[in-house]
Design a protein that fits this description.
- This protein has one domain.
- 45% of the residues lie in helices and 0% in strands.
- The chain contains 5 helices and no strands.
- Helix 1 packs antiparallel against helix 2 and helix 4 runs antiparallel to helix 5.
- It is globular.
Length: 119
């Protein structure tokens, strides 16, 4: 079972997640995979050896780059980046209209905790 805690987040980390900034809606198939991915991370988050193990998968699902940008290329300057804060993640991303029905309500409450997990 321990392998699952490594394999599934690694799979989620590599999913091609659609951009939330575009005008296109997330397809039903994409929404279903994303919803199941959010549910897995939410359900098993406390079972990860390190809480940070879920971070790369969640960052991908939320379309956050490792340099703290939302849907920006890595070449974006620091002036173009919005600093990631728990409030920003919760209000701007987890509560975004494009994730309605995709991200579980319970996950909205803890997604910023996973992003900022220290251990």
């Amino acid at each position: 079972m321990t392998e699952v805690y490594h394999q599934v987040p690694a799979f989620i980390t590599n999913l091609p997640i659609p951009s939330y900034s575009g005008n296109e809606a997330i397809s039903a198939e994409q929404a279903a995979v994303m919803a199941q991915s959010f549910a897995f991370l939410h359900k098993f988050y406390l079972d990860f050896d390190s809480k940070r193990d879920a971070r790369p998968a969640l960052l991908n699902l939320l379309q956050l780059t490792y340099n703290g940008g939302l849907d920006l290329s890595v070449s974006a300057s620091s002036e173009e980046l919005t600093p990631l804060t728990p409030v920003f993640i919760r209000e701007t991303i987890c509560d975004s209209k494009s994730l309605d029905g995709v991200i579980p309500q319970d996950m909205k409450m803890v997604c910023s905790d996973i992003v900022f997990a220290q251990n």
